[in-house]
Amino acid sequence: MKELQQKVKDEGVVIAGSVLKVDAFLNHQIDAQLMKKVADHFYEHFKNKGVTKILTIEASGIAPSIMAALAFNVPCLFAKKAVPSTLTEEVYTTDIHSYTKNKTSHVVISQKFLSAEDKVLIIDDFLANGEAALGLYDLVKQAGADCIGIGIVIEKSFQPGADRLKSEGLDVLSLCRIASLEGDKVTLIGEEE
Amino acid sequence: MKELQQKVKDEGVVIAGSVLKVDAFLNHQIDAQLMKKVADHFYEHFKNKGVTKILTIEASGIAPSIMAALAFNVPCLFAKKAVPSTLTEEVYTTDIHSYTKNKTSHVVISQKFLSAEDKVLIIDDFLANGEAALGLYDLVKQAGADCIGIGIVIEKSFQPGADRLKSEGLDVLSLCRIASLEGDKVTLIGEEE
């Protein structure tokens, strides 16, 4: 997705050689028009798969997911990183480790909102080691639902997440694929020397 | 907003006489079409105020806010409840207490994304005691920006939040106003005996 890729190059900031900060349009301030276009790309790719639900994880996954939910005309469900006091019924849970935050979250969704009849599109803002997407996939499997694919806004292709998901047989669509952040510079797939 | 009010009555669950659980369409599973209509109502009310930015707080404020950002064609900024490692520049901070969670969060936004030129519309999913909205208003004032109003999806009108905001001279638009949750039943403003 050209516009997104240009935005990542123009406004992304590389920290410590491996962390990409995109808080100008995705992780803190959010470009709503861009999120709508991101969602349209997900829709174009997955529209014939019978998607019944979008699944993501709070908080930065919500913006692209709610736009995708609008495009697919299905509900969006976001996994929570802490069990709220209002979540009193049965839950599916999994542990997701964030390398960036060096923290493992015990993630939950209510069993009410995911069933064996669902065809789930998982969406997230970033794919690096694949921990979040694999955790969400685990929740889908616990529900006996079908995961029809994974939509990712930004993939750090030099980390193993995409390969881990594909080795599970999952259809992964990443709209911006980063080959390297070496020299504190964003190099996209296809731009390598 | 009739459709929202009906949804709250049909799908909202009252817990312990004072907490309203709306995780079927707002706080866990999200109804994207409904969020778009919510945003359209905010737009209709505030469209002539020169809004330059939508401000909310993670996580449940993001869905209505990103839809509003799309309607107003401005960026959405969400305050974070923890300082991420990637947030390395100067921040505005405030403390927000959640009575439901019995927890005070040290909330931050990057100074980069809010300036004295901004006209800010604050949006949140719930208004009860007003802690979150007043905290966000505090961030707007720290930036020297102008707060043109507050858009709320569900207001618990029997709690003091709305009055606290209005006593600051703020224009508060709440799309569903709840008079009481007594008897574990949702009674809207206008429905009281």
From TrEMBL, chains A, B:
- GO terms (BP aspect): purine ribonucleoside salvage; xanthine metabolic process; XMP salvage
Stored InterPro entries = PRTase-like, PRTase_dom, Pur/Pyrimidine_PRTase, Xanthine_PRibTrfase
Q: Name one GO cellular component term.
A: cytoplasm
UniProt keywords (A-Z) are: Cytoplasm, Glycosyltransferase, Purine salvage, Transferase
Q: Which one Pfam family would you cite for this protein?
A: Pribosyltran
Query: Where's it mainly located?
Result: cytoplasm
What pathway annotation does it carry?
A: Purine metabolism; XMP biosynthesis via salvage pathway; XMP from xanthine: step 1/1
Q: What is its EC number?
A: 2.4.2.22
- Boundaries of each Phosphoribosyltransferase domain copy? 26-158
Q: What does this protein do?
A: Converts the preformed base xanthine, a product of nucleic acid breakdown, to xanthosine 5'-monophosphate (XMP), so it can be reused for RNA or DNA synthesis.
Could you give the subunit structure recorded for this chain? Homodimer.
Task: State what protein this is by name.
Answer: Xanthine phosphoribosyltransferase
